[in-house]
């Protein structure tokens, strides 16, 4: 492994934030290297092979109003690879399926009385009209949603989703986080009110690989299987250590989870700063991916409003992207957010399938195990920051405690939530800003 000697910027992490930063730095002539601990690039958007095609390890799509990702794809000349489709969404509640793809479906949502259906519709409209999100910072999502829609709407619709997403942290989640989710989904609908989502042909990893190719064309370097143990300032520059290898550069951009950065700089950073990096909590995710020889349903995204289930969503990817892309197999994701200390987090793929299958059969009684031809289990320790009340006060600055160290992680994306669109936005922003400083000095 050879590291370039003339590096100006070292970027830690080859997810979309790191790659987007490297893209704008490299095309401005800045010497940049990206170091990634995993064997593949992409971070949470990394992929694996299914019948000769790449498939995202964790389900991915973006909304039609996600402009940053579309602008990047346009820059790369790859707009022809974007497909936008209407999707079917629904809720599984009390052993029944309910379609919730359009506002009209809400009128038929029988678990709620007519009055509560009206309350739910008004809640969504009121939430989307909020302009000053800072006014929500002192409220939790469960307080805010109860006040807007009443107890019944909260218990049936919102509480199961909060618990499914954040588990033991559900009642700590800020109203700002939930407000942004409602706002974002409301802006990605067609004329008939149906939700429309976008996908990159070949999976999100194809976009990451196209980005990496451009970085290399511009003279940048990307190294995988490089686990960074320490970052330290030295003689006005920065050293990044991995094993017995050292990369020296003028500046460093860290895109990893904040507690990982804390470990990298603990030998010299002040304890209060380390505590700030460790203060934000993260929840993990396990995602069971099934390859089936037939479809489970016609629904793309099914929220499971029953916290006792070992998955919060059933995402039937091949109701969005055609099964022919995966050798005719139907792809289903079963996603579960949980602390990394939960016993389920460490289960192997076979054991987790054994555990999850009875719940899936409860939803789909005709399902037989022999429909499942292959299965895969993926884990993400740092999947989702827990966005608490007054989160803006918890986020560390982009500029580190010593000149030349910069932070650009998904925990700092606020008031928006983590996601490819915002990872690209923040990566490009810091890349462009540093490129301007470097090239004008």
Radius of gyration equals: 22 Å
Number of strands: 20
Strand content: 15-25%
Unreliable runs, pLDDT <50, ≥5 residues?
Answer: 187-191
Provide the CATH topology of the largest domain.
FAD/NAD(P)-binding domain
Query: How many individual domains?
Result: 3
Quick one: CATH class of the largest domain?
A: Alpha Beta
What is the count of DSSP helices, taking H or I runs of 4+ residues?
Answer: 12
- Residue share in helix: 25-40%
Q: Give the end-to-end Cα distance, rounded to a whole number of Å.
A: 31 Å
Overall geometry comes to globular
Secondary-structure arrangement, i.e. CATH architecture of the largest domain? 3-Layer(bba) Sandwich
* Structural class computed from helices and strand pairing: alpha/beta
Strand order of the largest sheet: 8-7-16-17-18-15-19
Sheet with the most strands, sense and barrel status: 7 strands, mixed
CATH superfamily of the largest domain: FAD/NAD(P)-binding domain
Mean pLDDT: 92
